[in-house]
Amino acid sequence: MTLSRRTSATAAIAGAAAFALLATGCAGTADTAGSGGEPASADNPITLTVATFNDFGYTDELFAQYEAENPGVTIVHNRAATSNEARDNFFTKLGAGSGLADIEAVEVDWFAEMMQYSDRLADLSDDAVADRWVDWKTAAATDADGRLVAYGTDIGPEAVCYRADLFEAAGLPTDRTEVAELLEGDWDTYFGVGEEYVAATGQAWFDSAGATYQGMINQVEFAYEEADGTVIATENAEVEAIYTEVLENSATLSAKLGQWSDDWFAGLANGAFATMLCPGWMLGVIEGNAPEVEGWDIANVFPGGGGNWGGSYLTVPAQGQNIDEATKLAAWLTAPEQQLTAFAAAGTFPSQVDAYESETLTGATNPYFNDAPVGEILIDRSQAIDVAPFKSVKYFPINDAMQRALTRVDVDATHTIEESWQQWVDEVNSL
Amino acid sequence: MTAVAVDERPVRRLAFSQKLSRWDVKFSPYLYISPFFILFAITGLFPLVYTAWVSVHEWNLIGGQGDFVGLDNFAFVLQQTPFWVALRNTFSIFLISAVPQVAFALVVAAVLDQNLRAKTFWRMGVLLPFVVAPVAVTLIFSNMFGDQYGLVNTLLGNVGISPIGWHSDALASHFAIATMVNFRWTGYTALILLAAMQAIPRDYYEAAAIDGAGPIRRFFSITIPQLRPTLIFVIITSTIGGLQIFDEPRLYDQFGQGGANSQWMTITLYLYNLGWGQLNFGRAAAVAWLLFLIIVLVGLINMALTRLIASSSGVTASQKRAVRRAERASASTEKEKVSA
């Protein structure tokens, strides 16, 4: 077969054009707001899709319960692996004007980015739920026009998870009260105990520089942006200090497993590291990925005081076909009772005020974590949070680039601390 | 007389049915081919032009069209180091995947061309990996290529080779991604080559065997030269596919951005990061157009090489006939590919 000039040129053009199609396929505008839709009943069956990521603690049983109480409703639950993946999907389809699930979960890190387009989300304001959440959670989800566009699910008060069996082997205390006393203090204390552990065992103290950095940066009120949105990330001495500190310590203390990588999940199960920073929702991740491991425990302590990592919301995109039914389901899912069920399943700590009074939470223990009183510990940890980090529209891309900078030094070992910092500065400037 | 009068009459108008049949002959072929071009105009040409329109504007994924900025988006992209890194990665992955793939496919096809028992079983067997979804292939391979606890590094460790940084070293990551591409595509390429091989007249081999040529000599002196046109087809299609590689690098790690240091960020992945990560469609469209131009350029180079090969080979009449037969065979497999 000899290709003539025309056929191969056409083949090349056709191939390239097919690709160009990808780039334009999603560029439409999204001003078509979906209708409220008919209420569901046995005669008018509807399907509601719920999109979450990681582990929200929404079990099949939970959805089955709602389906039983509301005849005609079928719920389809889609779970993305990471929050990054969910974000890509969310913005693509929000821009395209179609394709989003009826209920979309949104993480706090890219929440501000999303709030720019709050007019594309359904107004969920309702007196019945007005006082359901802690104040700052509700305030962040209310847009300039006073519309409440998202229902809070969980918050992420952080504690320290540790492997009691590995602590014992290293000659460290294993009881969670003693561990809490041992680690009480600032980050230097945490890294200092790590040095002891590493000296005794030759094993790593924490999982990765990236995860540890996340705990530290969430204690800074204005890390990357000032209150008016001005980007200060690259000039902020505090950011550079944290960056340098965590990487210098990682040289000896880190297991060098990039968070959420296949290696990291394997490391969770095989004892590659002895401690990790543990927001409430992380408990479900650990238990789910290392089900056979005995020894994980949780200590009521966090370096440098308290910290919040993550926490999410549920939104109802205005493009959906069944907005009223979706709002009803979102309200039900974020009600204190259901959030407590989710907490029991995955450790997602409630952002709902009423839940804190509940016996279910205060008396909650987790058999996997050696029967730790996780409810009590996390309530304590949430009260220790004294900084609400300011996250504006550039927070997510800057922090994402920062995570790559940390990975270059810690996991990949392709760059020195200074080189990687410089590359990050360049990347932030090109945003 | 009357007959003469009839002859002198001006030629009467053609009946409509005659006209129709004349039009039928003239225009029908174009009508029959038109669905392809109409479809192409809608799904190919329009997006191409629209992307060009987007690329000269500020354009946010959600906010939509902004100001006209001329070629600023192109200038910005061309000044970015990541763009050139992406270009390097794309070509590197393409070369590491395409070259061994064609070579290996040739060997597989040659083996399948022999008198094997249960021929169809073996032929379908090599196509099996092609049936597996690329996402599934990538998930499995990424796990195998884990830096610390991956299967590959464990096996290497068993024979005393120190672990390779599959996700940190650029070349190693390209190799891993090329492995996934080859896993999926080698069987497919082998079948195309096999079809062409079977069109080679068997008398050539007999004549060569009588002249004392061994199997290796027969392979290099008869099979390979006869396969040339099909090889060119395979190379061109794999070039276009290779330069657009996306699924494999996207799913190679948990973040899908091509690595912390852009180790395996390809052009399409860079485009994706710009468009969907930074929500900047103007710049993403500029990258899409640059990629288009690059593919056209590579296509032209391919074509020039093709002509060079076609004119330099002094083929005999019977060889030409065989080539034509091979063309027919490969044309039918090509059709299969299009319909697939």
From TrEMBL, chain A:
Cleavable signal peptide: 1-29
Domain of life: Bacteria
Pfam families cross-referenced by the UniProt entry: SBP_bac_8 (PF13416)
InterPro entries linked: Bact_solute-bd_prot1, SBP
Keyword set, alphabetical order: Signal
Transmembrane segments: none
Keyword Cytoplasm applies: no
Protein's name in the database: Cellobiose-binding protein
UniProtKB/TrEMBL annotation, chain B:
Topology class, membrane: Multi-pass membrane protein
Pfam families: BPD_transp_1
SUPFAM superfamilies named among the record's database cross-references: MetI-like
GO biological process, one term: transmembrane transport
Keywords: Cell membrane, Membrane, Transmembrane, Transmembrane helix, Transport
Transmembrane regions: 30-53, 91-112, 124-145, 175-196, 227-246, 284-305
Compartments it resides in: Cell membrane
The keyword Glycoprotein is assigned to this record: no
Main location: membrane
A GO CC term attached to the entry: plasma membrane
The keyword Ribosomal protein appears for this protein: no
The ABC transmembrane type-1 domain, residue ranges: 87-302
Family of this protein: Belongs to the binding-protein-dependent transport system permease family.
The protein's name: Cellobiose ABC transporter membrane protein
Species this protein is from: Microcella putealis
Lineage, broadest ranks: Bacteria, Bacillati, Actinomycetota, Actinomycetes, Micrococcales
